[in-house]
C-alpha cells in the first residue's frame, strides 16, 4: 500500500462521512488532523465528490487516492471507458498517456497484459496504488517518457493507446493533433514499428476532416456521446488498412445505447426531400458530429426538410437514434402567425438552418422557456422560414 498519510483510517473515515458537506464550510473549520495539511484533505474530498457519478467504482472502493480535481475532470468516465474497451482485443496493450488509468482498468478486463505509462511519478504511484485497491492485477505502471519506454521495451503490442495531452505549454489549450503531446503525427513510423493497431482519443471539438488530414491508415472513427453530449472521438488506425473508412456513432443513455454507423463514401445517393409530415426526427449529437446527414435519412427512409436543416420527417412512427416529435401545427415565420400562435407563450425552442438565434426569438416574441411544447424554427425545402410546433414522443 502507498505510504501516504491521507490513507490514515481516521482521515479516510472523515472524508467519507463529510463527502456531501460544503467545502467552503469545512475550509473555515479547524483541521482535526494537524499532521496533514488541511488543503490536501479538502482536495481529496473535492476530487472524490467529482468521481461520485463519473467514476462510481473508484468512489465506492476503499482507500482510493485522488490526484488533483483537474485530473478527475479530464479523465474518461467509466461509461466511455467501457465503451472504448469494446473496440480492442488481443493479448497486450500499452497506454502511452496513462493519466488516472480509468481506460486501462477497462482495457484490462478484455486484454491479458496492460502497461500504463505516465511521465508524472507522483500520479503513476497513485494509479499503481489504486489499481491494487481495485484488484486490477494485470496492469503494470511505468514512469517516464512513454516514447522512450516504447523503444526500451522493444515489444510488439496488439494495441497502442494514446490520449494526447491537449494542454500545450506554449499555446495553452489546443485541439489540433500536431499541437498535442505526444505529437502523434510525427511518430507514426515509431508506433507502427511496435503495433499494427493504434487507438487515439481526441477532443470532441476536433473537426473530423481536420483529423483525417493529420492521421493516416484510419480504419474506423468512433464518436461517443453520453446523454446526447459528444464526449470523445476515437480514431482506430491499422498499419495495413486501405479502403473506405467506417464512422460509428453511439449515444450512451441511461436505459439504452443508440448506435448508427455508415461508410464514408462520396458516391452516396442524396437524401430524399419533402415538406413536414406527421413526425419530426432530430438525430442525436453523435450523428450530428459525424456529418452523416444524408446517410441517416437514406438509411431510415426519411425525407429531409432542407439540405442544411438536418431535420427529417415521415408519416409513420419509427425507431430512430435521436429525438422524435409529433408535429401538431406548422406556421410561417411571419408577424401575424407568431403573434397569434406563440407570442407571450411558453415553449422549448430549437433553431436549425434559421437566421435568428434562440435568444433573439425569445426576446422578440416574449416566449418563456420550458413546458411541453417544442418549437423548431427552420427552413423548408422551398426555402420558406417555418415554425414546427410539436410534442415530444
Q: Quick one: biggest sheet?
A: 9 strands, mixed
Radius of gyration: 25 Å
Low-pLDDT sequence parts = none
Shape: globular
Report the end-to-end length measured between terminal Cα atoms.
52 Å
Beta fraction of the residues? 25-35%
Q: Give me the secondary-structure category.
A: alpha/beta
Q: Give the tally of β-strands.
A: 19
Mean pLDDT: 94
Instruction: Please tally the helical runs, counting DSSP H or I stretches of 4 or more residues.
Output: 15
| Largest beta sheet: strand ordering | 3-2-1-4-7-9-8-10-11
As a percent range, the share of helical residues equals 25-40%
Describe this structure in words.
- With 393 residues, the chain is an alpha/beta fold.
- The chain is 30% helix and 27% strand.
- It is built from 15 helices and 19 strands.
- The strands form three sheets. A nine-stranded mixed beta sheet has the order 3-2-1-4-7-9-8-10-11, sandwiched between helices. The chain has an eight-stranded mixed beta sheet with strand order 12-14-15-13-16-19-18-17.
- The longest helix has 17 residues.
- The protein is globular, with a radius of gyration of 25 Å.
Task: Please tag this protein with its features.
about 400 residues; alpha/beta; single chain; 9-stranded mixed sheet; 15 helices
Quick overview of this protein structure:
Helix content is 30%, strand content 27%. It is an alpha/beta fold and 393 residues long.
SSE layout and pairings?
Layout: H1 9-17, H2 23-27, H3 38-54, H4 56-59, H5 69-74, H6 78-85, E1 92-95, H7 102-107, E2 113-118, H8 121-133, E3 139-143, H9 146-153, E4 159-162, E5 167-168, E6 172-173, H10 188-194, E7 197-202, H11 208-214, E8 218-226, E9 229-238, E10 246-252, E11 257-263, E12 272-273, E13 279-283, H12 285-290, H13 293-299, E14 303-304, E15 312-314, E16 322-332, H14 335-341, E17 348-352, H15 358-365, E18 373-379, E19 385-392
Parallel strand pairs: 1-2, 1-4, 2-3, 4-7, 8-10, 12-14, 17-18
Antiparallel strand pairs: 5-6, 7-9, 8-9, 10-11, 13-15, 13-16, 14-15, 16-19, 18-19
Amino acid at each position: 500500500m502507498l505510504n501516504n498519510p491521507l490513507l490514515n483510517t481516521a482521515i479516510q473515515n472523515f472524508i467519507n462521512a463529510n463527502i456531501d458537506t460544503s467545502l467552503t464550510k469545512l475550509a473555515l473549520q479547524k483541521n482535526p488532523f494537524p499532521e496533514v495539511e488541511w488543503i490536501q484533505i479538502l482536495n481529496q474530498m473535492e476530487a472524490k465528490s467529482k468521481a461520485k457519478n463519473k467514476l462510481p467504482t473508484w468512489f465506492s472502493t476503499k482507500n482510493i487516492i485522488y490526484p488533483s480535481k483537474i485530473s478527475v475532470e479530464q479523465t474518461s468516465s467509466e461509461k466511455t471507458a467501457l465503451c472504448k474497451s469494446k473496440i480492442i482485443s488481443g493479448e497486450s496493450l500499452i497506454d502511452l498517456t496513462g493519466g488516472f488509468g480509468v481506460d486501462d482498468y477497462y482495457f484490462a478486463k478484455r486484454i491479458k497484459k496492460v502497461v500504463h505509462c505516465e511521465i508524472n511519478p507522483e500520479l503513476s504511484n497513485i494509479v499503481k496504488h489504486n489499481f491494487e485497491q481495485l484488484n486490477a492485477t494485470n496492469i503494470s505502471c511505468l514512469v517516464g517518457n512513454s516514447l522512450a519506454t516504447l523503444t526500451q521495451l522493444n515489444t510488439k503490442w496488439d494495441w497502442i493507446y494514446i490520449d494526447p495531452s491537449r494542454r500545450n505549454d506554449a499555446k495553452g489549450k489546443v485541439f489540433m493533433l500536431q499541437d498535442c503531446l505526444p505529437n502523434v503525427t510525427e511518430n507514426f513510423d515509431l508506433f507502427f514499428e511496435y503495433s499494427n493497431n493504434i487507438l487515439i482519443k481526441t477532443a470532441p471539438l476536433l473537426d473530423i476532416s481536420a483529423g483525417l488530414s493529420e492521421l493516416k491508415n484510419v480504419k474506423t472513427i468512433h464518436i461517443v456521446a453520453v446523454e446526447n453530449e459528444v464526449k470523445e472521438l476515437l480514431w482506430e488506425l491499422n498499419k495495413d488498412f486501405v479502403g473506405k473508412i467506417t464512422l460509428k456513432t453511439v449515444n450512451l443513455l441511461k436505459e439504452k445505447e443508440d448506435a448508427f454507423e455508415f461508410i464514408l463514401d462520396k458516391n452516396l445517393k442524396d437524401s430524399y426531400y419533402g415538406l413536414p409530415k406527421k413526425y419530426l426526427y432530430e438525430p442525436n449529437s453523435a450523428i450530428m458530429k459525424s456529418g452523416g446527414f444524408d446517410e441517416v435519412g437514406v438509411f431510415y427512409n426519411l425525407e429531409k426538410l432542407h439540405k442544411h436543416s438536418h431535420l427529417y420527417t415521415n408519416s409513420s412512427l419509427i425507431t430512430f437514434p435521436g429525438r422524435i416529435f409529433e408535429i401538431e401545427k406548422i406556421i410561417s415565420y411571419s408577424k401575424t402567425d407568431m403573434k397569434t400562435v406563440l407570442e407571450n407563450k411558453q415553449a422549448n425552442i430549437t433553431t436549425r438552418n434559421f437566421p435568428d438565434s434562440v435568444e433573439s426569438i425569445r426576446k422578440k416574441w416574449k416566449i418563456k422557456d420550458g413546458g411541453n411544447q417544442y418549437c423548431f424554427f427552420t427552413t423548408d425545402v422551398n426555402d420558406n422560414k417555418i415554425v414546427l410546433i410539436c410534442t415530444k414522443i
